[in-house]
Amino acid sequence: MIDKNELIGFIAAVCTTFAFLPQVIKVWKTKQTKDLSLRMYTIMFIGICLWFVYGLRINSLSIILANIVTGVLVFTILVFIFRGKNGK
Questions:
Q1: CA 7 to the chain's CA centroid
Q2: Contact, 73 vs 20, CB < 8 A?
Q3: CATH number of the domain that residue 13 is part of
Q4: Structural domain containing residue 9
């Protein structure tokens, strides 16, 4: 049986992780990133990486999975931001 704390973690992870999905979809469709902050997404990505490491250290599946998915979403936005700045 899943621990109640981990269940709360999974529910929170779904909410916070998928909050990025509309932004990724919009950027993917429009290829427009001029109004997005490279600094904010870079700091966010670093924080996500650190949360992932923390999740590994405390063996929390909800933290690990949430930060893998969120990391991929934020990294996708960063790729689009870099491509936009390089004119590609």
A1: 20
A2: yes
A3: 1.20.1280.290
A4: 4-17+36-85
Query: Do the domain assignments include residue 50?
Result: yes
Taking CB atoms within 8 Å and a gap of at least 24, the contacts of 31-36 are 31/80, 31/84, 32/84, 33/77, 33/80, 33/81, 33/83, 33/84, 34/84, 36/77, 36/81
pLDDT in single tens digits along all 88 residues of the chain: 778 888 898 899 899 888 889 999 999 999 899 889 999 999 999 999 999 999 999 999 999 999 999 999 999 999 999 988 765 5
Residue type, 70: T
- Spatial distance between the Cα atoms of 77 and 58, rounded to a whole number of angstroms: 28
> 44 and 25 in contact (C-beta within 8 Å)?
no
